[in-house]
Write a structure and sequence with these properties.
By secondary structure, this protein is of the alpha+beta class. The chain is 17% helix and 39% strand. The longest helix has 19 residues.
């Protein structure tokens, strides 16, 4: 997969849970089109909900793939539930918390919580002028839930030929695993 919608894995419980984050930056090209200034209104760049669903699919897909050591080609089969209740803006961080509900030879089901964290200005200790001079992280706020089903395509599409290499779990995913100290999951 070429496009990555997660930046780092921050938590892993084998065969149970994977947590990843995505830092949203105004440097990301898609934010300039979602939504540009028009009709006398200022631009309102927000992270598209469809890309947050993909971020959760990548997070949960890594969790599902890790169960078999990434020997199966895991693809998203169905979005069971996708509820995003609040927007995410540049400068905020998204946290995807994916949990494995069930896994079988044919595939798996997951549940996921989406949260956002805001970088906020604060007042410096001892600052008598009350100016905003320090920055701090706000807390995590739940903004949605995404439940997904995955298919092991080698098991479900018998008779069709797929490349030997795992085209789903590519070098990008290996890099994410390696930077989290989980390179051993990808056979490294």
């Amino acid at each position: 997969m070429r496009w990555m919608w997660i930046d780092r894995i921050v938590g892993f419980e084998p065969e149970a849970r994977l947590v990843a984050i995505k830092n949203v930056s105004l440097a990301e090209e898609h934010l300039h089109d979602h939504f540009p200034a028009a009709g006398g209104h200022d631009a309102l760049p927000i992270m598209p909900a469809s890309l947050m669903i993909e971020g959760m699919a990548q997070t949960a897909g890594i969790l599902v793939g890790s169960v078999t050591g990434f020997k199966e080609k895991v693809i998203l089969a169905k979005i069971v539930r996708a509820e995003i209740e609040k927007d995410v803006f540049p400068g905020q961080t998204i946290r995807y918390d994916a949990r494995l509900e069930a896994i079988q030879a044919a595939g798996a089901s997951t549940t996921g919580i989406v949260e956002r964290r805001t970088y906020e200005l604060g007042t410096a200790s001892g600052d008598k002028r009350g100016e905003n001079t320090c920055e701090s992280w706000g807390g995590w706020e739940r903004i949605g839930r995404i439940d997904l089903m995955f298919s092991h395509i080698d098991q479900n599409l018998s008779g069709l030929q797929f490349p030997e290499e795992n085209f789903v779990f590519s070098d990008n995913f290996r890099t994410v695993l390696r930077t989290a100290g989980l390179g051993n999951l990808a056979g490294e």
